[in-house]
TrEMBL record:
Full protein name: UDP-3-O-acylglucosamine N-acyltransferase
Protein species of origin: Robiginitalea biformata (strain ATCC BAA-864 / DSM 15991 / KCTC 12146 / HTCC2501)
Catalytic residue positions: H241
GO molecular function: N-acyltransferase activity; UDP-3-O-[(3R)-3-hydroxyacyl]-glucosamine N-acyltransferase activity
Subunit structure: Homotrimer.
Pfam families attached to this UniProt entry: Hexapep (PF00132), LpxD (PF04613)
Taxonomic lineage from the root: Bacteria, Pseudomonadati, Bacteroidota, Flavobacteriia, Flavobacteriales
Length: 340
């Protein structure tokens, strides 16, 4: 796709200094700009690159005044960073504006989908599926029986949505995600042989949820595994059966949440965190990366370590931990002095 400076300025309500007809077809960092690329200047420390970059167009703040001659076209806006982000969102929207049904696909006769949908080649849409308007199902995705998907949701290539799953509006499911697989439920008999416990529940994903590549969300044993509105999950996260995650909570990669744990609203959970099952985590909780959570957590706690401690207590304890070799040496020296 190619855009002129005039078109970009129109989208951003910006002012052009330079050639309004110059065109760009890609984005770049300002220090790596090439002819035909668009970049931006928001951090003053990158200002020297304005004069050396080969980018064709640079988005800058309105108060920017060049101190040297420029070979590039400027688009001046109120906030260069926000405008560039807006442009990225617009570009993403244009790029994903596919519609129609490619060949081959399998769509069950009982399935329904709204207007302006896209069904990519080799995707599978099962019985009684209900999809809203502008839903995008990319190639090789699997949509099981009785799945519901709301307007404007995107399911990228290779994602697997098991039966009975409910997904809201404006969600993004990235490649390789698996939603609705069986929870890890087995019961031993008297001989120690494990038998599977049927997982008869489902997964409910509310509006504006993002699910990263390779993330797995298990269906409930009974009832539902629930991700509330605005939840954002990174790549390669495991959410077990009957977990509930509150609104606008964000979780970084490789975190695992065991069964039936409830996580509150507006929490921030770092990468590689392990959370045991059947506990309650309050609202606005912050958990540092690689922490292990084995107890209930109150609202607004900040935790670190494994097992996790209050963030301040952890840092104080870590100071003592670093001093352990020196303390041991002092104790040994004192014991020698006392003839022990």
């Amino acid at each position: 796709m190619e855009f002129t400076a005039s078109q970009i300025a129109g989208i951003l309500e910006g002012e052009i200094e330079g050639n309004p007809e110059i065109a760009v077809h890609k984005l770049s960092k300002i220090e790596e700009g090439e002819a035909g690329s668009l970049t931006f200047l928001a951090n003053p420390k990158y200002t020297p690159y304005v004069y050396s970059t080969e980018a064709s167009i640079i988005i800058v703040n309105k108060d920017f005044t060049p101190e040297q001659s420029l070979s590039t076209t400027l688009i001046k806006v109120e906030d260069a960073y926000k405008s560039f982000s807006k442009l990225l969102a617009y570009y993403d929207q244009v790029k994903s504006a596919k519609t129609g049904v490619e060949d081959p696909v399998h769509v069950a006769e009982s399935a329904e989908y709204g207007k302006d949908c896209y069904l990519g080649a080799f995707c599978y849409v099962g019985n009684n599926v209900r999809m809203g308007d502008n839903v995008k199902i990319y190639p090789n995705a699997y949509i099981g029986d009785n799945v519901v998907i709301g307007d404007n949701t995107i399911v990228f290539a290779g994602a697997k949505i098991y039966s009975e799953t409910q997904i809201g509006r404006d969600c993004v499911i990235h490649s390789g995600a698996i939603i609705g697989a069986d929870g890890f439920g087995f019961a031993p008999d008297d001989d120690g042989v494990y038998s599977k416990i049927p997982q008869t529940g489902n997964v409910i994903i509310e509006d504006h949820v993002d699910i990263g590549a390779g993330t797995t969300i298990d269906r409930a044993t009974l009832g539902s595994t629930i991700l509330r509105r605005g939840v954002k999950l990174d790549n390669q996260i495991q959410i077990a059966h009957n977990v509930e995650i509150g609104e606008h909570t964000v979780i970084a990669a490789q975190t695992g949440v065991a069964g039936s744990t409830k996580i509150g609203k507006h929490c921030m959970i770092g990468g590689q965190v392990g959370i045991v099952g059947h506990i309650l985590i309050g609202d606005r909780v912050k958990i540092q990366a690689q922490s292990g959570i084995g107890r209930n957590v109150k609202d607004d706690e900040v935790l670190q370590g494994s097992p996790a401690l209050n963030y301040g207590d952890f840092n104080k304890s870590y100071v003592h931990f670093k001093n352990l070799p020196r303390l041991v040496s002092r104790v040994e020296s004192l014991e020698k002095q006392n003839g022990k």
